[in-house]
Amino acid sequence: MNPVHTKSQDDSALDHEFLVFALAQQEYGIDILKVQEIRGYDEHSVTRIANVPSFIKGVTNLRGVIVPVVDLRVRLNLEQVRYDEHTVVIILNIHSRVVGIVVDAVSDVQTLKPAQISAAPQFGSAFAAEYLTGIGTADDRMLILIDIEALMTSRDMALIDHEIEHVS
Amino acid sequence: MSEAVDLSEFFDTFFDEADELLDAMEQHLLHLDPAAPDMDALAAIFRAAHSIKGGAATFGCFEELTTVTHTLENILDPIRHGDIALQAGMIDLFLETKDVLSAQVAAYRKQAAPDEAAYARICAQLQALAGTTHTAPDDEADWPVRVRIERLAQEDTAAIAHEMGLMGTVLHQVHDDAGWSVWLDTSVRPHDLAAVCCFVVDADQVHVTREPVPGIEAAAVENAPQPWPDAEAPAAAEHAAGQVPDPACAAPGDRSSVQAPRTESETARGGTVKERGTIRVGVEKVDQIINLVGELVITQAMLAQSSQGLDAIVHDRLLGGIEQLDRNARDLQEAVMSIRMVPMDYVFSRFPRVVRESAARLGKKIRLETHGQATELDKSLIERIIDPLTHLVRNSLDHGIERPADREAHGKPPEGVLTLTAQHSGGHVVIEVCDDGAGLNRERILAKAREAGLSVSDATPDEELWPLVFAPGFSTAEQVTDISGRGVGMDVVRRNIQSLGGHIQLFSQVGHGTTTRIVLPLTLAILDGMSVKVGAETFILPLGHVNESLQASADQIRELSAGEQVLHVRGEYLSIVPLHQVFQVPGAETDPARAIAVIVQAEESRFAVLVDQLVGQHQVVVKSLEANYRKVSGISAATILGDGSVALIVDIFALMRQARPVAVAELAT
Known about the structure:
The complex is a heterodimer of chains A (168) and B (669).
Chain A: E1 16-23, E2 26-31, E3 35-40, E4 46-47, E5 56-62, E6 65-71, H1 72-75, E7 88-94, E8 97-103, E9 105-112, E10 117-118, E11 132-138, E12 141-146, H2 148-153
Parallel strand pairs in A: 2-12, 6-8
Antiparallel strand pairs in A: 1-2, 1-9, 3-7, 4-5, 5-6, 7-8, 10-11, 11-12
Chain B: H1 11-31, H2 39-59, H3 63-80, H4 88-109, H5 116-133, E1 145-150, H6 154-167, E2 169-176, E3 179-185, H7 190-197, E4 206-210, H8 218-221, E5 226-227, H9 270-273, H10 283-306, H11 316-339, E6 341-343, H12 345-348, H13 351-362, E7 366-371, E8 376-378, H14 379-400, H15 404-409, E9 416-425, E10 428-435, H16 442-451, H17 462-465, H18 490-499, E11 503-509, E12 513-521, E13 526-534, E14 537-542, E15 546-550, E16 557-559, E17 565-569, E18 572-578, H19 579-582, E19 596-602, E20 605-611, E21 613-621, E22 635-640, E23 646-650, H20 652-658
Helix pairs in contact in B: 1-2, 1-4, 2-3, 3-4, 3-5, 4-5, 10-11, 13-14, 14-18
């Protein structure tokens, strides 16, 4: 950790690959290294869990492993939450825990150089700024880059047993 | 040490092995009788110390471990040979040494530095003991073999090093201008070692001696290297061959600079070399196999389901194959589950030490008897049963068994007996902790219960009184000792047992002792379940808790004042827990008279769970929800159904806490 040194701007080794997905006409990018696989969404394969926030759709069977499924659109209070043939589940692997997120569609993988990434605005996004790593620009596209790891492990996501909740 | 090879990947294996050896060492120590020590046991203890030392020295980075085991070995050796008489005090010191070694291994495992103070103390104690009993200097026979090769070409080093690695354990190697040296822990005869080297180099380049490894056995380094006395082998120089490997070199007794082979006085590595017929496999690998087999069973169920509508005559062969697959898959599942099974000895073996030390501290005479050590239990269960069981044992030692004088006053033999038993009983494992002590004190429990405001009377039968000791904060110990009696205890024990899907019972008779019985399922990986439908959702109820199910008639449902309902079955009023309410299932049957009541039992309480429909009974593979998600209230785990969907397994104990016991007075008749 070197607090003085800011992100190097010229090193091509710092190119990042992002998986691009869509939520309500807006494109988002997440670190491709966190993505395990992408699956179509099948409502019948998700088992509902009682007494949990509505964005947690339930749990599903991923080749014998029980995996929670989160609908990011519900989490972001988006108005149109449709389940159609484009609806997909991105299976993420975060700290060796597996979790699925439901998004409208997945488009492509985009490589961004550090120069193409600018700081995230403090407002105007559906996500709190603490979960954004920046804004990526590629040609005429604008990608909101999400720190998916921070988002999924956050306390209000309620995906992990946080110690403090045990005290009760 | 050997910079080229990263040994760290072998650390875990070494730690596991060291732990096992230390456990074995403790067992042998506990059984040693100072008056007439069993020579085999002494030899085994020595071997354990030696193997750990050898292993630790191999890696070269566990200095404290090496030093302590080395010192221990030096004391054990003369004892083993009968040169020094074993004394009772020594056994205690050796046991303490074992604890220090265990702590060191644990520290290394966590990549931490071992406790300096403990290390220094035990070394001093051992050296003091060694000083008083010292007879002979470090036996050079225990030194490793040093193979020195002069003028070794750089390109040949790797080949030689590899060959030496095959001969034994490489403790250390040095490469300098004069040549290359390697220290080996090996049982291969020195001149055979030289013969191997002759494949690559000339015989006169090779020197084999016994020498301590520099740095590790610092105390012994001052002794000059001693070549073997000249006896058998002819002078090697005249046989000097070219650099070309010469097969004749391999023949023993042929050219070599090594003189007489010297048989190892003690095959010190025997403990590890011995064929055990077992392999060491990581638990995660076994779990992966279990998962895969679980998948296979589910896939098989899917096939069976989709083939159901097929014409039995047209698809005769297919259906026959599916049936056979079913049998094979289940056999396979059973076989795989048995891999995880560990004998109870794993738990019982730690109690001789506990009993020995507690008895000494408390001034009591206690004999430990264990039965059914071979009873097998799932590994994950066995690990989680250790703490509750230890607690029960300590309770018996501390509060159960009386002092010798008190025992004699009551006409009992002065020596108390603590019995641990494990046995299989109808798909369950029953573990009992039994002492022949004073038994539970009825008066004190009554007093304590009244103090806590519980409704008890002098007429309360024992069977209703004893379970009270499981209530939180309920301790009747007269004085708090460091062993037990802090008021935390039996309730935690019971909660632990419940979380394992088991239950606990207590039997006691004043003056005759107390027996605690723990009943556990065989495994946590598979569960006999009853699948039920609530609305469109499927839940699994653990079959072990299900007593019966019935369709209640309207007149069996009674309304309580607060709108609660109870079920009247054969004179008993049972609290009703509608599953659809607990899990907020939409579209479920809400009328208790039209739903199905499943009567379940958790501990002493019985209550009725309302479901829409019973689907069937089957074994389900238990899958953790916490692995990727978190604990869900009211749910103990999940499973995968034949159609690949996930079903949740209901936690009966969580429901029990919702089901209030029904007091007869509340019934609005």
